[in-house]
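ok posting inputs for the zinc ion job
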Amino acid sequence: MPRPAQGRGPIATTRASARVFRLVLTDGPVRRGELVRRTGLSQPSITKITRAFLDRGYLAEVSPGHGRNGVGGRDVRIGRPSVPLDVRADREFVVGVKVTANELIGVVTDLRAHVRHAARNHLSGHDVADVVGSVAGLVDELRRLEPRFRVRTHALGVSVAGAVDRDRGIARYEPFHGWRDLRLADLLSAETGLPTVVDNDVRALTEAENWFGVGARADSFLLVTVGAGVTGGLVVDGRVRTGAFGVAGELGHVPVDPRGPRCYCGATGCLEAVASEPAIVRRAAELLGEPDLALPDLVRRAQGGDARVRGVFEEAGRAVGRAAAGVVNLLGPEVVVVSADHQAGLALLEPHLRAALHEASYGAAGRAEVVVRLAPFEEWARGAAAVAIARRIGDFTSPPG
Ligand SMILES: [Zn+2]
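and the output
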């Protein structure tokens, strides 16, 4: 059992040690020799850094062939350089919370962002104090589930919609609750007693994908999410890109149809105005002349063979594919991940988005692997947890060597 009282400082205290820890976290088990090769640090430096992590219970030596993620309590302290090292994922836990208009979605994860528990709570009100109090309540509820969560949770990550200054912990503009320049991280930290990092929800999801998802095998990828809105995240050369103005990756507002519907952002024919769930519902309602339709009705009708409804999904799916192709041709990512929180809706979009992306890809850019998968809100909360893990390690910027 690690010594819990020592867990409150940062996990890594130097840039070099952060780099080593991140590499073992995302790619472990890893031998010391490989760490030397991939970080460019000297053998004595690697020995010293890994020794300190071993002593503090963050790393363990594992028998070769031992699978990852199962290290806890079974380390064999042989001390030979050829013995692989791995992170003790349950050395610490973090809580991640996604804030939506009416609901909080929370998870407690280990250091590898594996979700150990999840919970959802409705928000009692929209005032800052209501939301902060509700987040603290959910954090407390999750930490009470197991004694080790109470003792070994040292960070909270919270993701919100809109513009966020992550470094200063300020929600610059949050559209659901109307917050402007709110020092959210300080408020949450005071209420929960946990160091708190606040981030934009899509960027947090992209960080999780970069650290613990396709980022483990691809240096460059595009993440597209289709749901109440259409959003995107962009990782190029190992880093989540936000651009000069923080909007890089905003696929939802890429214009896809000059004759398309007006978008809430003021422009015409944005992807979001064509392919978000509300856009699909609105378009189908127009076509069918039935104003009170909801997405499940449309899914049922499309599955039942209604050609008009199927056409609406086809149009939306093709728009997503064309917009993604624009990014693929421009930046050449290895992987395109398309996710949605509605499985049946996603299945109706998938063949069309794949076909349009394939048709519109230029040359070798078309080799990009396309991954289509479900991402419920718990995945977004896990994104917030991943940002908290990154903050614990003190390394947002340097990709693994
Ligand atoms: Zn727009």
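notes: Residues 253, 263, 265, 267, 270, 272 surround zinc ion (CB under 6 Å). The first strand starts at residue 59 and ends at 61.
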